[in-house]
Design a protein that fits this description.
Elements: E1 6-7, H1 9-19, H2 27-35, E2 41-44, E3 47-51, H3 52-61, E4 73-76
Parallel strand pairs: 2-4
Antiparallel strand pairs: 1-3, 2-3
């Protein structure tokens, strides 16, 4: 079992910019995907956490390979 790479929206956007400085994927784009339920998230208080590998897969294939429904939000207390 591997531990998922959970990142904030800002960290995800920074990862894409680091990998490709000319990348147009920014925080706004990622937040839109979250708000539309296209990628699953976990919430820890006010913080939104995204599985970075799922987000990369989403941009590579157009779908997030997930086991749960896209509208499912997991809360961590």
């Amino acid at each position: 079992m591997t531990v998922p790479r959970m990142r904030t929206v800002q960290q995800c956007a920074a990862f894409f910019k680091e990998q490709d400085p000319g990348c147009c994927i920014g925080e706004w784009c990622i937040r839109q995907l979250v708000n539309q339920g296209k990628i699953p998230v976990c919430r820890s208080g006010r913080r939104i956490l995204i599985n970075l590998d799922m987000l990369i897969d989403y941009f590579a294939t157009g779908t997030a390979d997930q086991e749960t429904e896209p509208d499912t939000v997991t809360k961590i207390h």
